[in-house]
Write a structure and sequence with these properties.
Length: about 400
């Protein structure tokens, strides 16, 4: 009798365990795509993916407006930086900027609910501008363009957008606003700079010369550059990519804010592409897992606890970014080579189940030339109840949102 009871209890435990394991994710309710900008001119979010374009109250979103469609903008072709009123979807012009591109906008960041920082090209130099959106007055102009801003809004990372212009053209700015040093493979006076936004003081945190012996082999004709910086969630660490051309060798790096603990994220041949911090120590990067296939890879800085996310459903390069409550990751890929479809997915961080949110066709005139392509570039609102993205699905570049309800 006791043996039968034991078996019965064991079966119940197994049944409960299997039931829990097979419990499907309860995804939030997500609306259809809502266009928040008006046709007639091109509009897109004014920063790179994963950077929130919405202020803390979610009253406004920063957006660029331009008449340019199918060419790379120069420093003589300003875009209008403005706000979209999230209640009326009206566009409120703030100013113009001559330091922008279709991939990262003008790298506009919110410093607080009524203050933004963005990049511009003035008097032959790449700079950043701090502006109060309520009175449209500039509070400060700093002699450094920003690439990333700390969560506290008090510090920023700067890098060389002129060097980017000659190495990854669609991410740089025209006008030679910084010394690109194109004939120096690993400059010792250029790299990642940490900038105090209150005082304007800056210091070179990591130079290109410092990583010379930490990256794959290069030749005399190579040029190394830094791109894609991101502070972690508590502002103590910084991530970025180092890449050498023409070899296209990519290495992902992190460093502490004080310049200590410089380290590579992956072995050779893994590379690295897109990224977001889950918390102060865990980082997701799309990379070539084991040198074989791209995937969304989550790991802890300083460890090799690499984990592919999505159970095989997300084994491709895409723009993944985490919701404010860290329960979800939204990610969007590149256009399908045959259909031109760009797909947006939502993943449950607990179960790793993946749901398709939308699929939108990018017209050939946008996708044929990479320098003015329109990547989806998803971003969350501060409250996690909206996902913003760009699309050319109507034949024009416009900004959209999903409304998200848990």
């Amino acid at each position: 009798m006791a043996g039968k009871n034991f078996i019965f209890i064991l079966l119940i435990i197994i049944f409960i365990g299997v039931s829990k394991a097979q419990t499907p994710a309860k995804f939030p309710t997500v609306s259809e795509a809502i266009q928040i900008t008006k046709n007639g001119k091109e509009h897109f979010y004014a920063s790179y993916y994963g950077i929130t374009s919405f202020n803390r109250s979610q009253q406004y979103a920063t957006v660029l407006q331009t008449s340019i469609k199918h060419k790379l903008p120069t420093e003589n072709e300003p875009a209008t930086l403005g706000l979209v009123d999230m209640k009326t979807f009206g566009f409120i012009p703030l100013t113009t900027t001559r330091a922008w591109n279709f991939q990262e906008g003008c790298m506009a960041h919110w410093l607080d609910n009524s203050t933004i920082i963005f990049n511009d090209f003035r008097n032959g130099k790449n700079v950043s501008v701090i502006m109060n959106i309520e009175n449209k007055k500039e509070k400060k102009v700093l002699p450094f363009p920003v690439s990333g801003v700390a969560p506290n809004g008090k510090e920023a990372v700067s890098l060389n957008f002129s060097r980017l212009r000659i190495t990854r053209t669609d991410y740089g700015y025209g006008g030679n606003g910084q010394d690109a040093q194109k004939d120096v493979v690993f400059p010792d006076n250029d790299g990642i700079f940490l900038v105090n936004l209150k005082t304007g003081a800056s210091k070179l945190l990591v130079s290109l010369a410092q990583i010379k012996n930490m990256v794959p082999p290069f030749t005399k004709s190579s040029i190394e550059y830094f791109a894609h910086t991101r502070f972690n969630t508590d502002g103590t660490k910084i991530f970025w990519l180092a890449r050498g051309i023409p070899e296209w060798n990519t290495s992902a790096f992190t460093v502490n804010k004080d310049g200590s603990n410089l380290q590579r994220c992956f072995p050779d041949k893994w590379g690295g592409s897109h990224f977001d911090w889950l918390d102060e120590d865990e980082l997701m990067i799309t990379a070539n897992y084991d040198g074989k296939k791209y995937a969304h890879i989550l790991f802890t800085i300083g460890k090799q606890d690499y984990k592919k996310l999505g159970k095989g459903a997300l084994d491709f390069d895409a723009h993944g970014t985490f919701s404010p409550n860290k329960k979800w990751m939204v990610t969007d890929g590149y256009p399908d080579k045959n259909s031109g479809e760009q797909k947006i997915y939502l993943m449950d961080m607990k179960t790793e189940e993946v749901k398709l949110l939308g699929s939108y066709v990018e017209p050939k005139e946008y996708s044929d030339k990479g320098q003015w392509r329109c990547d989806i570039h998803s971003r969350w609102s501060p409250k996690g109840d909206m996902i913003g993205f760009n699309s050319t699905k109507t034949g024009e570049r416009q900004a959209y949102i999903y409304r998200v309800k848990e």
